[in-house]
Amino acid sequence: MQKGQQTKAVIIEAALGLATQIGLEGLSIGAIAEVTRMSKSGVFAHFGSREELQISVIREYFVRFEQEIFYPALQAERGLPRVRALFDNWMKRVAVEIQSGCIFISGAVEFDDRPGPVRDALATSVQTWLEALNRAIVQAQLCGQLRPSADPHQIAFEIHGLILALHYEARFLKNPGSIDRANTAFANILARYSVPNHPQA
Questions:
Q1: Rounded Cα gap, residues 43 and 143, in angstroms
Q2: How sure is the predictor about 201, in pLDDT bands with cuts at 50, 70 and 90?
């Protein structure tokens, strides 16, 4: 990497760490300059605006989300094994984010009623993830493992919902056993929609 790219990567890394603690709304050129011990003008030269800094953080967060969740799951067999891999990988990330925070969730709260490029970047990232989950569910239906009459969007909605509930239960309420309950809920979802007596169910 060239020096400019290295500096920008350092800034994004610092901004990402800060955003998990204080949210995207808390990011500012000045705050990042302080954390990285750079001048405000130096940080500004790489991004040009607070908004562009926020969007860059969202993009980097999504890249890591893909690397930790999407791509490893593609190594699993199509159908329920891949659906389970997506969920298992997601749970590993959630276990970390219970302590550090999730930018997708905090960002949704901060920007839900604020149209603009930052909200668009957040929404696009989350929608891309949900579409990947939906595709895996459809593949499981085509493999004969999930009932063909089931609505794949409904299944994805229920899986997504239990992850959101887990964040609330474990991070906000700090209820013990939340991860175990989420795993049980996921197993119940698959049991409800699986084709009876299928070997993969």
A1: 51
A2: low
Structure tokens at 100: 């550090």
Domains along the sequence of the chain with CATH:
59-193 (1.10.357.10)
Q: Which residue has the tokens 């860059």?
A: 56
- The DSSP result for the chain, as a single string, is --HHHHHHHHHHHHHHHHHHHH-GGG--HHHHHHHHT--HHHHHHHHSSHHHHHHHHHHHHHHHHIIIIIHHHTTSPTTHHHHHHHHHHHHHHHHHHHHH--HHHHHHHHHTT--SHHHHHHHHHHHHHHHHHHHHHHHHHHTTSB-TTS-HHHHHHHHHHHHHHHHIIIIIS--TTHHHHHHHHHHHHHHHHBPTT-TT-
- Report residue 1's pLDDT band, with 50, 70 and 90 as the boundaries: low
Q: Measure the CA–CA gap between 18 and 22, rounded to whole angstroms.
A: 6
The pTM for the full model equals 0.88
Taking a C-beta distance cutoff of 8 angstroms, is the pair 159, 133 a contact?
yes
Q: Is 6 exposed, middle or buried (0-12, 13-18, 19+ CB in 10 A)?
A: exposed
For 116: left if phi > 0, alpha if psi spans -120 to 50, otherwise beta; the answer is left
